[in-house]
Specification:
Number of helices: 9
Radius of gyration: 30 Å
Protein name: Integral membrane protein-like protein
Keywords: Membrane, Signal, Transmembrane, Transmembrane helix
GO cellular component, one term: plasma membrane
Strand order of the largest sheet: 4-3-2-1-5
Number of domains: 1
Strand content: 5-15%
Helix content: 40-55%
Pfam families: SUR7
């Protein structure tokens, strides 16, 4: 007789597998779950502190601004984002598990009297090549774009980029790489748990339930640990960037959608393991077997209807 109780873990494991795969592949191109990032870096106001320095400075960024303002009639502070674009920088950089994406805020990066915050949307223009051990390094990314746009004479030091951000993110590099490995391990274990649950439909008994409990708990621990580490990375990275980058017009936000996705996958695997725990603990009563043609009467044994 099919084991109907196994249908629940099958559905739960399948859901956890899909959610975990979405976490792993989110943002691999600009149209696939790009808004499910771990951290989003906002550089639309980068250079604000350099702009406030003396115009007699030898800072090449100030010289660049002086040249641009010769052709711009509006106030320089209101058009700071135009300078960022002219420098070859993007408004935002979204860090994912295996790559990062970049783009601009449309119709503008900063809300004002005529532009509400809810009217601003992300226009993703490109994503980097995805790698297994991806580590988001904003300094390297920004400097590479400055060089590619023909402004190699300007470096992030000229833009007052805080070294404390680099140190803080460098401390999280190992955790970022470990997270990818943990997601791969979790996906493998969840896939194994799904296969065992399917097989267990046709096998009854506590041994199969115990094996499923063991594999499901391992999968739960793997995805739970991955979720915990990626949450710590998102929270710590956004805190470091906001704390030290506010003075230079740089901010960051942790990816709420990604965190919801990974923690739901964790909760689903916990539910699957609890179902198997219940199946393993509940006592199974075996039906009484009566041997055909033999039994006992009041006076003793009888066979074929005779004592």
């Amino acid at each position: 007789m099919p084991r109907l109780l196994a249908l629940a873990p099958i559905l739960l494991c399948a859901a956890a597998l899909v959610l975990s795969l979405l976490c792993l592949f989110a943002g691999t191109n600009k149209t696939f779950l790009e808004d499910y990032s771990i951290v989003t870096l906002n550089t639309s106001r980068l250079g604000q502190s350099a702009l406030n320095t003396s115009r007699s400075s030898d800072n090449p960024f100030i010289s660049f601004i002086d040249n641009v303002t010769n052709t711009i009639s509006s106030d320089i502070n209101s058009d700071l984002n135009s300078f960022a674009k002219d420098l070859g920088l993007h408004d935002f950089y979204s860090a994912h598990l295996r790559d990062y994406c970049e783009g601009y805020y449309t119709p503008g990066p900063v809300p004002n009297a005529t532009l509400s915050k809810h009217s601003i949307h992300k226009n993703v223009t490109a994503c980097s090549n995805h790698t297994a051990t991806f580590n988001f390094d904003p300094r390297a990314v920004l400097q590479r774009e400055l060089n590619a746009s023909g402004h190699s004479n300007i470096n992030l030091t000229d833009l007052k980029w805080p070294e404390a951000i680099d140190k803080g993110l460098h401390a999280l590099a190992a955790a970022q790489k470990a997270t990818f490995v943990l997601y791969c391990v979790a996906i493998a274990l969840i896939g194994l748990a799904l296969l065992l649950a399917i097989v267990s439909v046709f096998f009854d008994g506590r041994i199969s339930a115990f094996v499923n409990v063991l594999v499901d708990w391992l999968a739960f621990l793997a995805i739970g640990l991955a979720s915990a580490i990626v949450t710590a990375v998102a929270v710590k990275a956004s805190h470091v960037i906001n704390h030290y980058g506010n003075s230079v017009g740089v901010s960051a936000s942790k990816g709420g959608k990604f965190l919801i996705l990974t923690w739901v996958a964790t909760a689903v695997m916990l539910a699957a393991s609890l179902v198997w725990c219940a199946d393993c603990v509940v006592e199974r009563k075996e039906p009484k077997r009566v041997r055909a043609g033999k039994g006992k009467g009041f006076g003793g044994e009888y066979e074929n209807g005779r004592f």
